Amino acid sequence: MSGPTGGSAAPFGRRLTEKIAVRGPLCAGIDPHPGLLDAWGLDATAAGLEKFALSAVEALAPEVAVVKPQSAFFEAFGAPGIAVLERVVTEARLAGALVLLDVKRGDIGSTMGAYTAAYLNGHSALAADAVTVSPYLGFGALVPAIEAARAEGRGVFVLARTSNPEAGELQNALLRNGKTVAQSIVDQVAALNAGAAPLGDVGVVVGATVAPGELDLSALNGPVLAPGFGAQGATVGDLRALFGAGLRGVLPASSRDLLRRGPDPAALRAGVREVRQSLDE
């Protein structure tokens, strides 16, 4: 398979834009947290993980533009968990959703090359439409992965200003040029996306709980993954205050707020439609 859609190497930004136009911008997280497994009446075993994850995919993936599995919750189960994650990637894409694998990888040289081979190479069972990456070993260390992703029509989302409270001390630190660390990351991503249409292939992660005006995203020309929507407290109003009324290319991410409605598939689907309607109002 040479591309993420069985041979097609259409740019990720284009594929994402087209998918959002049909299904809306909601990104559904699949986070098999032990507490959620318990709430669904499932054991914290590989079998419980598989039941939870594949049931969530079956209900959510036909409804949303993007499904975002959190890799760590699968890795916690060792090899059986990785096998379930492979099935999640496959089944979600068969249901028509793009898969954004939340792995937050970031390293240098051959190690980053190995991560790239695992998550962005079409010969890997874990290859996703896009992944999250961390720039905190230097933004330049990510460039080979970004180039490899683009060559296969895949995307990356670079952590810029995350929603966790501990992030501010580092991400809002001022550089010698007067910019914050987060703004510098946004600007470097914007440079990679310059001239792309309808949207660049390199996105940023900006928490939906970030204060409006903290970042200038006007030149980004790429997608934004916005965690913190729903269970972490951010509302549709917060999204619009932060990203603008149009929310172009913004993917509000919801996990617990949707998954707590399970295991009933109808309730899960109803939750998606409820959130999607709120984003359109």
Question: Would you mind describing this structure in some detail?
Answer:
- This protein is an alpha/beta fold.
- It has a single domain (12-280), classed as TIM Barrel (Alpha-Beta Barrel), CATH 3.20.20.
- 43% of the residues lie in helices and 14% in strands.
- The chain contains twelve helices and eight strands.
- Strands 1-2-3-4-5-6-7-8 form an eight-stranded parallel barrel, surrounded by six helices.
- Strand 7, helix 10 (236-243) and strand 8 (250-254) form a beta-alpha-beta unit.
- Helix 3 (46-60) runs parallel beside helix 5 and helix 3 crosses helix 12 (265-280).
- The protein is globular and about 55 Å long.
- The model has no long low-confidence stretch (mean pLDDT 93).
CATH superfamily: Aldolase class I
Mean pLDDT: 93
Radius of gyration over all CA atoms, rounded: 18 Å
State the distance separating the first and last CA atoms.
Answer: 40 Å
Determine the structural class based on helices, strands and strand pairing: alpha/beta
Anisotropy-based shape:
globular
- The largest sheet has its strands arranged as 1-2-3-4-5-6-7-8
Largest sheet: 8 strands, parallel, barrel
Number of strands: 8
CATH fold field value? TIM Barrel
Report the sheet-strand fraction. Answer: 5-15%
- CATH architecture, please? Alpha-Beta Barrel
Low-confidence stretches: none
Number of helices: 12
H and E string:
HEHHEHHEHEHEHHEEHEHH
Regarding CATH, which class?
Alpha Beta
Helix content: 40-55%
Number of domains: 1
